Amino acid sequence: MILYITLTLILSYLLTMLFSIRKSQMLMMSVYSNKTLTLYPAGLPATRQMDFNLAKCNIMSAITRFPLMFPAGYKLCNSPLESISCHKYLGVFIQDNLEWDSHMKFVKHKAMKILGLLRRNFSGSSQYVKTQVFNSLVRPHVEYASAAWSPFEKQHIKALEAVQRCAIRFVFSDYSQFSSVTSMQHSLGWDTLEVRRHLSAATIM
């Protein structure tokens, strides 16, 4: 049931992304016999005197099971476009194989970087202050748009939980390898990030 909800949310997110392009930015397409697809702006430069930044225009094809043996080339205003395997859209990294490895690495790296900054600047603060700065500055990064990319692989789930476990040690200022992080988590009354994602997905549905 949870997997079905997650797949449904991912599909709805991708559809929203496809239909979020403004009408003035729609493209007209012409296909040639040499497998080259040429894209032309639909009146945008003429009506608004604007040009596309071709250096920032790329092509990404989401093909998982049966990749194309002879992929087509793409051009925009007669300039070839570079094919990419990962693209950042609204803060979420989307891969051509529809996996979330790149986004998981980005989220964990950013959260741990901020958490390290908090450890250096709030080491002498109270547990209440440490909890507030974690909830305000770190947790939003590991939960942003989680309804779309909520992980189901154990390696990704453990990677995100490691961020919160480090934060729990930061709150208690206890970095001993003999201390129980689970016990400290229960004393704080924190749910795991996985539980929080499921509750968030259920709320959205």
Describe this structure in words.
The structure is a single chain. 50% of the residues lie in helices and 14% in strands. By secondary structure, the protein is α/β, with parallel strands linked by helices. The strands form three sheets. A four-stranded mixed beta sheet has the order 1-2-4-5, with no helix packed on it. The protein has a two-stranded parallel sheet with strand order 3-6. A hairpin with a 4-residue loop joins strand 1 and strand 2. Helix 3 packs antiparallel against helix 4 (127-137) and helix 3 runs parallel beside helix 7. The chain is elongated, with a radius of gyration of 22 Å.
- Indicate the mean pLDDT: 76
Pattern of helices and strands: HEEHEEEEEEHHHHHHH
Which percent bin holds the helix content?
40-55%
From the N-terminal CA to the C-terminal CA, the straight-line distance is 12 Å
* Beta-strand segment tally: 8
Structural Rg? 22 Å
Q: How many separate helices? A: 9
Give the helix/strand class. alpha/beta
